Structure formats: C-alpha cells, structure tokens
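anyone seen this seq b4? input:
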Amino acid sequence: MNKGWLYLFVLSIVALSCDTASNIEPPEDSFFLKYYGNEGNQEGVDAVVNTDGTITLLGMTDEIDFGKQLYLVNIQPNGLINWERRYGDARNEIAKDLIITSDNRLALVADIENSPTEHDILVLTLSLDGGIIASDTIKFDNGGTPTDETANSITQISDGFIVAGSTSKLDLKPTIPGGNAGDTRDALHVRLYDDLSEYPSTWRKGTGPGTYDDGLKVIEVGTNQFYFFGTSDTPNRDGDLSFYVLSLGATGEAISASDFLPGQLQGANEILSSVITSPVQSGEGYLLAGLSQSGSDADVLIVKLRKDLNFGNSDIQFTRTLGKNLGAVDNGNVSVFASKASGFLVLTNDKSEGNQNFYLMKVDNSGFPEWNDPIIFGGELDDRIGAVLELPDGSIGIIGTFAIGRDGETKMTFIKVNKEGKFLE
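predicted toks r here
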C-alpha cells in the first residue's frame, strides 16, 4: 500500500483549497472541503441528508462565553450555509448522534457535562429548520447523589425512540447469576415516547453481562423485540473488551444470552463504535465496526451478522480486519455507511504517519477492499473524524474536525468527494 503517496496527494489538495476558516473557495462546487464556525473552536460529529437534498451537520462550538454548545448547520449540496443554530447553557454540551425521522424531524442526543465525571443526557427533536419541538433530560442518582450517564446513539422505533449509552448507576439491570460484584459501569437503554416523555418504569433501563458495559445502539426488529449492540469486558477472554449483542423483550429485559463476537487476538480490546442495518443490496443483516486496540496500535474490525440472530456462531457472516497498524489514535472512532449500490464506506482515524488524519475505505459485501488504497485526508496537525455518509448523487460526504493554524484552532469540517473518494468529476 503506497500510503504516503496518497497522504501527500490529498494534503496538496487541502493546502490549495483551505485558505481560511470562514471562506473556502474550492476549485469546483461539486467536490470541496469547507470549514464551518466563527471565532473559537468548533467540532464536527455527525450529519444527515434531508428529503430536500440539503445536509444538516451536528457538532459543537465554544465561540461564545457559555461553554461548549451544540452547533447545527444546514448546508446546500455545494456546501453553502442555509442556516446555523446553537443550543445549550453555561455547561458543556457534547454532541453524540443525529438522525432524521420517518416524518421529517431531526432527533439528536448529547451529553451535558455537569462535571468532568458526572453527566446527564440531553435529547432533542427539532423541525428541519432547527426549531425545538421537544426535549428531555435523562439523569439518575444514588440516594440523592447524581450518577454519570453518557449517550452514544438515538434510534427511532415504532412509538418513539431508544437512547443507548452507559451509566454509573449499577442497580438498573437485573442481578445476574453469581451477582453483580465488581460492576463499574452498565449499558443503558432508555425508551422514550414520540414526545420524548419516558416509558413507564416497567421498562428496564440497564443491561450488560460484564463488569464494564457500554451500549452503542438498539434496533427494533419486531413487535416488542429489539437487538442491543455494545461493548463489554469478557471473563472468558481475560477481561478484554469485545463487541456483543443480545435481544431485549417488551420490557427491556434480556431474552437471550449475550453473544460475544470474536476479536482479532487475545490481549486486544475490541471497542464497538458503529452499527448499521445492512440493506438488501449489501446483503441483509447488521454491520458492526470498531477498533481493535493492542498496546499503542489499532486496527479496524468489522463484523457482519445475519438478519435474524439465533445468538450462536452461525450469526456471523464474516469478520475482517482493515486499515492495519493505524497507530495510537486519539479518537477511537469508526463510522460505516451502506452504499445504495452495494458495499460499505468505512471511515476511521490514522496516526501511523505522526499526525492524525482521516482514513477512508470502501469494502464490498464480503468485507474485502474495493479500492486499491485508502484515501487519507489531513493537515499538519491532528484531525478527528465524525461520520461518513453517501449523498443522493452517489458522492461521499465526510464530517469531522480539522485543526488549523499555528494555535491549533479546530473547525467543523465537511468534505465532499466523488464515489471513489477523490476531488474529481
């Protein structure tokens, strides 16, 4: 793999087209790199395509004296801004996930930082112009002492939403055989009605088979049945972290044994960071992606599961390791997206060359690379990915964070490239 050549090639494009944080004039309107935000630091986390073809970007900004606020930007396909909104108060808000609902609302989830070790979860539904429709704050306590809740995703279900994440409140899940001794953190799955009021207390909000559990996503698969995906430590692998999936029933209780998915090697931690439903054209099922971390190095691990799970070895269609030797990445994130033709886009961070950059791949329906080499985007400082998505015309959109200038100011960044990951027609 001629990784260095790709890196320099993309850097040359970035250097020519990224003159300032507020005004970027790309060589073509079709494919570009643009920054969003004014003075201060901004970060890019997630993006969705609206039914009118515009793109809504989610991230954070700290340009005003209110701490870090949620930052939403709606852009045209050529990157020009239609509107931008800020949400939050004097505390830091940390953007996590953005979706567009079946009835054309935006729904997002974020963490509210009350202190570095204590968070609540903020849930918002918005109109397509950014107006707030409903909001809810998810928080718990132990005997009056607030506990720490963090979110990873929000998913629409038939009568509302489910937020997945983790909590330091350790009595939300049922007692498992042998007791819950040694628990440090449990996976969280909070069910909300469409107006964001919380589901009755009969719905169990916590689960997890290990002493450390983190819920990434919940997907509704049938009447009163859900698949829950997360990361857990596993006693049968010396406490290493692994991907796992289980089935939840009508009241949020686990109705299957936890299915731990095979990782790369003993002694490595496999941390799940993306789950998507694989459509027909890519082979029905679920694609899971995350990093396999061992020491100061990381690889991308993807696992494809079949559509109907029986929670055994036959659930796995394939396991692949991609993007080997990525280095000690600071943001262990992987984003995947199913192409409308076939195959999957895979985006992660790469720090093997010193600075941290964006690392984009495409794999086929069996998980094998479709491109001869990955595409690497980056500058002279450390950059962090947010998410990858395919746009209606087949081009690729990438949201993330670029560090620019001598002082390392960060900017929400959106990159639009062709279906091969290049700034070319």
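The CA atoms of residues 173 and 207 lie 5 Å apart. Residues 3-19+26-417 form a domain with the Methylamine Dehydrogenase; Chain H fold (CATH 2.130.10.10). kinda curious what u guys think
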